[in-house]
Design a protein that fits this description.
There is one protein chain. By secondary structure, this protein is of the alpha/beta class. It folds into 4 domains: 241 residues, Alkaline Phosphatase, subunit A; 73 residues, Immunoglobulin-like (Sandwich); 165 residues, no CATH class; 218 residues, 2,3-Bisphosphoglycerate-independent phosphoglycerate mutase, substrate-binding domain. It is 26% helix and 18% strand. Strand 19, helix 14 and strand 20 form a beta-alpha-beta unit. Helix 2 packs across helix 3, helix 4 packs across helix 5 and helix 6 crosses helix 8. The longest helix is centred in the last third of the chain and has 25 residues. It is globular and about 85 Å long.
Length: 758
């Protein structure tokens, strides 16, 4: 049966999704669609005509800190740049395509403006991330060995620095600040130097820090206010005049509600008490004690002999000194069981991608869990790290290793053993997807679980040695095992606790199956009988992978496929193995099954197990042939495919291979467009992000290979020889694609969706 939608008999939409477009020229052949050129300096012309707009491009490393009020702007218009809350910024620069610096106007410490030239511009600055962890409720202050808290005692400058350091989301030390009275190896050294490097604390003119000196009320307010944008306010305190050096800081803290402003004296130069400190910090973090959690009196709950339940400070003290996970998820038992098991003669292992790429994982999650585990008394914890260099700079692994090693060193107290145990590049071990390369997962298993592989005294030495020997970037470095006295630091033994801290599902499923399934048959697991295993979240809701997880995953409803199935639309989804899940699993809201098997056909072209730069064409020819074949059949009203070349080959950093890859995609799209002309189809072409469009970047004046995704805008192209579709004015993203598809098919758009672009 043929359906008629709008003007076309049996409307068929071919959606070609690929990770980067190398075909700016393609847009020139598209009638009445948004024009795009990925060469810096060329304008984007709205479909409705008018003045061209140019891109406002923020340095990728600062995209979360510097936030323009628009991604494109016309020449002569005013662009506002806001500095994110919890970030300090200096030396903000706006540079056009010729390297000319554009004049900027500072409105306040957090707002800057400039007039857009007739060119794309790059925005950058010197920024410090001062955001605090207000999500995870780990203990950030401890009591004394005698079981007291001393709520009315004073807080030293070293203790204040340590509290805020523990709460920092970014614990990177940007510059080495030295103080004559902060010796190397002292328990507060890293905290003091890190906060000093970020400008949160300062020393004295004689080069000292005075770590044992008590913090005054004004000093603590000044320190606290630096983690947020200063907020104007006033105070009622009779002894805090407007001329006082700390007035603006105290007023800012009061204005934010962190400090009660009552009539009377505040004694700004007096020492702040420990009870006052936890009250302010808890308010800063929006933390309040869970009375039900405290009432249960779980084993390990830290109580103090000098803080009674009737004391006014009791709840604040207990919240600050006890780590717990009640706010992290509705599934608290998994974390508790993992910790309890690790304290019962077993080790706790963390496995995952070590970076802050935020695609598969974030190192801050690992660090928070390590600290929480130590606070709860776990004595043995080991990290099995997968090197990124794909979602982050190609050779950045040592930076993340150094950050992790600093944290592990801090946690090795009272005989605790916290260390890196094994690792390797993400494209060499462990993180396969879509069952494309099970031997890759097996090698990871041998490395992490059995401790088999080349041994090194440290992860740092392994990375440096492999780089020198192979010339490979981080993602392709071979597996390694960290050893002591000729033996692995730690293997994952039967009965241990294991957490996979990746949050994205596609590259987490196979290794999860290896740990989680009794009937696993993809490779021989040796004498493995089982561990207590959990993922960061459930990676596949249909297949229940894994059985246990820390965070309840979101329920994704009202997907495009659900809407099309409601309308009886027949769909076809196609890609090769490397991106097959992107047109099925991810497309359908993280579900591996079909919404309606009677209306959906999925086809997978098996990918070759070979480095992508060695075969940059990948399976573009086969994908094209199958798309054209199915377009000719008129069996489907909606077809979608994914060309992986721009993404997968782009990640290799090999320019010659990328050029070949994009030429192959161009040829494929040419054939699809010719088929569209022949058979009467409308074709939509877009991407989920850039990659092959930006193959180099400049760091510290040096041009280096770029392997990570770009943040450049991606095109949305409508090709239709018979109908001039008009794209609306506005700023659109991938969230608008679904509504655009159903609108073009003459269907109603669900109220919960973003608007259509046509």
């Amino acid at each position: 049966m043929k359906h008629t939608f709008r003007r076309i008999r049996a409307l068929v939409l071919a959606v070609c999704l690929f990770a980067a477009l190398g075909t700016a020229a393609l847009a020139d052949n598209v009638g009445n669609s948004e024009q795009y050129d990925d060469t810096m300096g060329n304008p984007s012309t709205p479909s409705g005509g008018g003045a061209p707009s140019y891109r406002v491009i923020v340095d990728e490393s600062q995209k979360d800190q510097l936030k323009p009020d628009r991604s494109t702007a016309t020449a002569g218009s005013t662009v506002t740049i806001k500095v994110a809350d919890g970030v300090t910024a200096d030396d903000i620069k706006v540079v056009d395509k010729n390297g000319k610096q554009i004049e900027i106007k500072k409105i306040d410490d957090n707002t800057y403006t400039f007039v857009m030239p007739a060119s794309d511009v790059n925005v950058s600055g010197t920024v410090e991330d001062l955001r605090l962890n207000d999500t995870d409720h780990f203990a950030y202050i401890t009591g004394y060995p005698d079981g007291t808290f001393k709520p009315n005692g004073n807080l030293t400058r070293a203790e204040a620095a340590t509290i805020f350091y523990r709460l920092l989301l970014d614990q990177t030390m940007t510059k080495n600040v030295q103080f004559s009275d902060v010796p190397a190896g002292k328990w507060y050294e890293t905290a003091v130097k890190t906060l000093a490097s970020k400008g949160v604390i300062t020393g004295y003119t004689d080069g000292t820090f005075k770590p044992t000196k008590s913090v005054t009320c004004a000093e603590f307010c000044a320190m606290a206010s630096r983690f947020f944008s200063l907020k104007e306010g006033s105070v009622k305190f009779t002894d805090v005049p407007t001329a006082f050096w700390g007035y603006k800081y105290i007023a800012s803290v009061v204005a934010r509600g962190y400090l009660d402003d009552v009539e009377g004296a505040y004694e700004p130069n007096g020492a702040i008490t420990r009870a006052e400190v936890v009250s302010i910090v808890n308010r800063m973090l929006s933390r309040s004690a869970d009375s039900a959690y405290l009432a249960k009196g779980d084993e390990g709950l830290k109580i103090f002999t000098d803080v009674a339940e009737t004391d006014a400070c009791y709840l604040n003290v207990m919240e600050a000194a006890n780590g717990h996970d009640y706010t992290k998820s509705g599934k608290t038992e998994t974390w508790k069981n993992l910790i309890a098991n690790a304290k019962d003669g077993h080790a706790l292992h963390f496995l995952g991608l070590l970076s802050d790429g935020n695609v598969h994982s974030n190192i801050s999650h690992l660090i928070a869990m390590l600290k929480e585990a130590r606070a709860e008394g776990v004595m043995k914890a080991y990290c099995h790290i997968l090197l990124d260099g794909r979602d982050v700079p190609a050779t950045s692994a040592l930076e993340y290793v150094a950050q992790l090693e600093d944290v592990l060193a801090q946690l090795r107290t009272e005989g605790a053993d916290y260390a890196i145990a094994s690792g390797g590049g993400r494209m060499k071990i462990t993180m396969d997807r879509y069952e494309a390369n099970w031997p890759m997962v097996e090698e990871g298993w041998r490395t992490h679980v059995e401790g088999k592989g080349r041994m090194f005294p440290s992860a740092k030495e392994a990375i440096e040695t492999y780089r020198a020997e192979t010339g490979c970037i981080d993602q392709d470095l071979p597996a390694f095992v960290v050893a002591r006295n000729g033996a692995p630091v730690a293997k994952i033994d039967n009965g241990d606790s294991v957490i996979l801290f990746n949050f994205r599902g596609d590259r987490a499923q196979e290794i999860s199956l290896a740990f989680d399934r009794k009937d696993f048959d993809k490779f021989d697991r040796g004498d493995y009988t089982g561990v207590l295993y959990a993922g960061m979240l459930q990676y596949d809701g249909d297949l229940k992978i894994p059985t246990h997880y820390l965070v309840q995953p979101p329920v994704i409803k009202n997907t495009l496929t659900e809407r099309l199935c409601q309308a009886g639309i027949h769909e076809y989804a196609l890609s090769e193995t490397q991106k097959f899940g992107h047109v099925t699993y991810f497309w359908n809201g993280n579900r591996s099954g079909k919404v309606d098997p009677n209306l959906e056909v999925y086809e997978e072209v098996p990918s070759d197990v070979i480095p992508f730069d060695q075969e940059p064409a990948m399976k573009s020819k086969e994908i094209t042939e199958k798309m054209v074949e199915n377009m000719a059949s008129h069996q489907f009203q909606f077809l979608r495919c994914n060309y992986p070349n721009g993404d997968m080959v782009g990640h290799t950093g090999v320019m010659s291979a990328v050029v070949t890859a994009m030429e192959c995609v161009d040829n494929g799209l040419k054939a699809i467009l010719e088929a569209a002309d022949k058979y009467g189809y409308t074709v939509l072409i877009t991407a989920d992000h850039g990659n092959a469009d930006q193959m180099t970047e400049t760091k510290k004046g040096k041009t280096i290979v770029r392997t990570a995704h770009s943040l450049n805008p991606v095109p949305f192209i409508i090709y239709d020889k018979d109908h001039a579709w008009k794209i609306k004015e506005g700023h659109f993203g991938l969230a608008n694609v679904a509504a655009t598809v159903v609108t073009m098919m003459g269907l109603s758009v669900p109220d919960c969706w973003e608007q259509s672009m046509v």
